[in-house]
Amino acid sequence: MAATFAVAALALAGCSAADESTPDDEPTSVIIGQFLAPATFEVTQAEWGNRALYYQAVYDTLLYGESDGSIEPNLATEFVYSDDNKELTLTLRDDVEFTDGTPLTAEVVVENLERFKNGGGAYAGDLANVDAFEAPDETTVVLTLSAPDPALLAYLSREAGLIAAPSTFDAEDAATNPVGSGPYVLNQDATTTGTSYVFTKNPDYWNTEVQLWDTVTMNVLADPTAGINAIQAGEVDTMVLTDNNNLDQVEAAGFTIEASELNFQGLLLLDRGGELDPAIGDVRVRQAINYALDREGLLEALQLGNGTVTTQVFNKASAAYDPELDSFYSYDPEKSRELLAEAGFEDGLELEMSSTAVLGAAQFPLIGQQLADVGITVNWVDTPVENYIADLTAPKYAAVPMQLETNADWQLIQFMISRTAPFNPFGFGDETTDALISEIQNGDKATQDEKAAELNAYIVEQGWFAPYYRVSAGYAYNAETTAVTLNATNIVPSIFDITPAQ
After folding, report:
1. C-alpha triplet 194, 196, 197: angle, nearest 5°
2. 107 near 27, Cβ under 8 Å?
3. For residues 189 and 420, which has the higher predicted lDDT (pLDDT)?
């Protein structure tokens, strides 16, 4: 997912992944288990995370994010910054056509970028620092920035860099009928919206070397149990694991599991200004919530110990990471009650939070009980998975449980900390965070690292979040396939990194 959670309804089509091969046993198709159906194929509303594969199948991005986190050419063969990092020049390929026959031009790219920035999508803020997009000639695009953006290249390898054909811009069926220049084409006849999506090889794709499958099928699984059943029945070749409760069964089915701690799970204490709920606007209440959580117990109960308890959202690869901040808030119910009393809630308080089973149904009674033990009553509102992110970002709740990816420092800041971050839906900030974010944005590497560490320490002390742990998330693949996960950014591999086994 950007947000990394999910699940929608599914009845599997009944075909076995193991049966998909040519006479000489060279696989020609792959079946990928997915947690989320695409909410839309309209690129201005695109989301990465678990939905990235849908978009990568049919669209190209301007740049490409390698599994090691490096950014490489794609539709743009060259990308060069000016000395002050306020102008980015892209040189485009001149041999690309969309699947409707329209050629890729700089003007088309500019239109896509402008539509993304102004389209109102959850990640439109990725281009907030870009003041102007220009096409001085057919293969050159120039982005003029109001201020340096250390994550802009990464954004152009994800949602913001998706390029759609102009024919989709005002099309009534843009949400369900994507037209891109990507390696595959959505087979509308074979696709059942919300359940199974079938993509066939684009015969005119400009980079045939990366088209390793004739057919890519993405099946949406109903719940974690359905996913495990599909793995055991050989009905999928690859799949993200929603939790760590069935690792033995997955391995017994002949699947390899790639695991890494890329995501944190916890509470997003969003209403730090107290607009919707004044209680969450009080730092003492946010700190009390942190002290009320038995993180070790939660990790064992919910993930069978597969992960690391933490109270910070920056991960170990980050320059901002401080191992001492993993335990800044100990499990201390008495301290929690003291802070609540200081904030004027000695008789307790009530909070309304959304819940959804795809985050792990067992989480909610455990969190509810731990908070109730210190006097905080949580009224859970069961929310359909397809509405969960929309309700969060509306914003509809002062605090919500969530699992989020943790990217490189500037991306993480723009993802959940800055005033324009999609997972800071109230747009909260203060003088301290504003100043630190500005120094990170405009400073050299040493300054960026130093100030990111200061920012991390500050938001932990201020209780902006109440993480439980970094999840040891797994991506499973069978003996016929190989998957290289994006260990720097996303447990879900790129579609180009899901390959036939050699």
Report:
1. 100
2. no
3. 189
